[in-house]
Request: fold
Amino acid sequence: MPNNAKDRLIVALDVPTMLEAAGIVESLGDDVSFYKIGHQLAFVGGLDLARELKAAGKSVFLDMKLLDIDNTVAKGVESIARLGVDMLTLHAYPKAMAAAVEAAKGTNLTLLGVTVLTSMDDRDLSEAGYHDDAVTLVLKRARQAAKIGMGGIVCSAEEAESVREIVGNDMAVVTPGIRLADGEAGDQKRVVTPDVAIRSGASHLVVGRPIIAAPDRREAARQFLEQIETAQSA
Reply:
């Protein structure tokens, strides 16, 4: 569990161009040390940015949500590990997780199993063909991830406390869908405030639009950091 609030806040660079991403990183300066690069940015140069961020002493969470046949997942993980990033996501399907864990042995890459997207609720899961509700499926996948040897779990902060009880203190619990009390949920359906997420057992909070779309990004980041620090000391 990171002790420094800056190591627990991950700012999502969910923008369409490298120019915008670079501007966000510059505007946040030393206040933010951890960034997420997802699909939108990865395919317009984001992998090069990952290398640049690492060279600048930042931490990088590569949000690729890998899912494929075992060999393809393994080869992808091997390539990504060579980038030197800190975290990588894949969907928490047991076979995919097992292949990824084997491929990542001997590296410093933390593999995160994505349980249920925070944009999905019970109705969405039912329409997708799942019989379990969101909470049941999250906890099932958390147990599988822990047994297989994953480095962490991605889940809503609503489930963080229950997930923490399953995975113990050695695994990361990364929670997207974090908003300040007066913030808009947007397309997220299971959202929680930073202080509640930390007290519930989250090790890292992923925040995108509330920071990158704020009039004063640095001030917005500091509000999240303050809530993390307050929750840590409670």
User: Anything to note?
Assistant: Residues 39-55 form the longest helix (17 residues).
